Fold each of these.
Amino acid sequence: MNPGKEQRVHPLIVRITHWINALAILVMVLSGWRIYNADAFLGFRIPSEWTLGGWLAGALQWHFAAMWLLALNGLAYLSYGILSGHFRRKLFPVPPSAVIRDIGAALRGKLAHDDLGIYNAAQRAAYLGAIALAVVLILSGLVIWKPVQFHALGQLMGDYEGAKYVHFFAMSALVLFVIVHVAMVALVPRTFPSMITGRVRGPTPAKGA
Ligand code: HEM
C-alpha cells in the first residue's frame, strides 16, 4: 500500500451485506437459544437473559423474521462474491500450510495484517468456514422447519433428529468464529472503520489477524 494514499478495501455491497448478516445472525442465535430451551435436548438450558423472544412463540417469530433476512441477504452476498470474482480474489487460494503458519503466527501475536486489502490465509480459511457454516445452518434449519418437504436433504443429516444436532453444533461453531473474529478486530482496530467506510489510509504497522 502507498504511504498516506487512500485505498478502497471493501466494496459497498460487501459492507452492507456483512452488517445485515451480522445483525441477522445475532437475532437468529439469541432467538434460537430460546427455542432450544423449550426442548433442551442436550440436557442443559441457556440462561433466559441471553435469549430473545420472551417465550417459544415469540422466539419463533424472531427466528423466522431473521431467517428471511439472512437467507436473502446471504444470497446477495454469495451471488456477488461468486459472480464478481470477489471470493476468487480475496478468499482464494487457501494453501493449508499457509493457514497453519498464519494461525501459529497469530497465536504468537506475530501475524502481520498491514495491507487491509489482502486477507491472510488464517482469515481466508475462517471466512470460508463461516460462510460454509451459515449454509449448513440454513440447510439443517430447513429440515427442522419442514422435515417432510425437505426429506431428501434430511437424509443427509440423520433426518429431523440428526438435523437438530447438526443445527446446534453448526451454531456453536459459528458463535466461536464470531468470538474469535471480534477479538481479532479488537487486536487490529483500524479494520473496523474500514468495514464501514470501505476505505483505509496509509499503512500503520499492525500485528494480529
Ligand atoms: C455475526 C457474524 C459475522 C460473520 C458471519 C462475519 C463474517 C465476515 C466475513 C465473511 C468477512 C469477510 C468479508 C468479505 O470480504 O467478503 C468479514 C470481515 C470483517 N468483519 Fe465480520 N462477521 C461477523 C460479525 C462481525 C462483527 C460483530 C464485527 C465487528 C466487531 C465484524 C467485523 C469485521 C471486519 C472489521 C472485517 C474486515 C476484516 C479485515 O479487513 O481484516 N464482523 N466478516
Amino acid sequence: MEIFAIETGNFKLDGGAMFGVVPKVMWNKLYPADENNLCNWALRCMLVVEGERKILIDNGIGDKQDEKFLKNYYLNGSDTLKSSIANLGYSFDDITDVVLTHLHFDHCGGSIKYNEKMELIPAFSNATYHTSKQQWEWASNPNRREKASFLYENIAPIKESGQLNLFDSDTELFPGFVAKLFNGHTDGQVVPHIHINGRTIVYCADFFPSAAHLPMPYICGYDTRPLITLEERKQFFKEALDNDYILFFEHDIFHECCDLEDTEKGVRPKEFFTLRDFLIEDKV
Ligand SMILES: [Zn+2]
C-alpha cells in the first residue's frame, strides 16, 4: 500500500466559528487569524494506492462553484485536485473509489463537474463513491443549521449516476482501510483508519480539523453535537495513545501529521511531520 497527501488549495473561514466557545486570545496563539478574523485552512485530501485500487479520500471544494459562492471563502494556493493527482502520474479516470468523510461542500465539492452540455456529472467516471448511510440521509434532508454546507449539486448527481455505495456501521471498506463513524460534527462522519506497516494513520476530517483542535474544549462551532464530540474524543484519545496512532489533518495549513502524547494538560501533539517524510524515514 502507498499513501499520498493530495493538496487541493486553501480557503478561509472565521476563526471564531472554527474554535467554538474558546476565546480568541487562546486559539489565536495556536492558529493565527488575519485582520478580518479569518484563518487560512488547507483542503488536504489523501490518495491510497493498493494494487489496482486508487482510493481518494475527500476532494476539496472543486472548481464548479460560481464566483458569488467562492468569494466568501477566499480560495488561495497554487495546488489543485487535478494537478496533485497528475503529479503522482494519475488521472481522474484512474480513481476507482472515492471515500467521502461527509458531504459538507469543502469535503466533497470536487466529486462533481460540468460536462460539455453543462450538466453536472461525477468527476470520477470509473469510481464508486462511498459514504455513510447516516450522512447521506442527513445531507439529503438538511437541517437549517447545516443547510448552507450541503449543496444539492454535490449530492444528487452521485446518486443519479448509480455510483453510490452506502454503509451504516464501522466497516473495513478495503483491506487495511477501516471506515469508522463519528456523530458529533455531523451525522455519520466517516473517519478512515488506514493500517500501514504496523501503524494506523487516521484521516481526521472535521473530527480534528487541525492540530490546534486537539485540546478537549477546542471544538468547532459548526459541530452539531459538541457534547457527543467530547465523548468521542475521550474514547478516541485512549485508543490513539494505546495504539500510537498517527493523525493526518485535512484543514491544518501548518501541520500535515502528528503523533500524540499524554501530558499534564491533556493529549497533545508529540511530533509534527509530513506523511511523506514519515514514510520515507520508514519510521513505520
Ligand atoms: Zn464538516
